[in-house]
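Lab notes, practical 5.
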Amino acid sequence: MIKTVTIKRRIGKMRQRRFVEEFKRIIPLLEKIDGKKSLTDLSRILGIRPNTVSDYLYDLKEIGLVELTFSDKAPRKLIPRLTPLGECIVECLKKHKSPKQHA
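Output from the prediction step:
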């Protein structure tokens, strides 16, 4: 009989792997958000279905990295903008990706 603790550990590891995989997909989205591109534009640029981009954006909104507003010109067009925290994370990601310079 398998112990309950072992099953919980396996489930926890699977969730961690899924989180890492999803976050790898979200990073390019975060980097493309500029407050001008719509959800549809981001979907085309990244080659991801609009529904998936929408799900990611609402998740990012929930954790405080993105604000979602509707365009003045087209009321059904959703425009994401980075919050100060989101901007900070994007900056950190850019610094982390850039090659380290040695003095």
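Observations recorded by the TA: The beta strands are 66-70, 78-82. The first strand starts at residue 66 and ends at 70.
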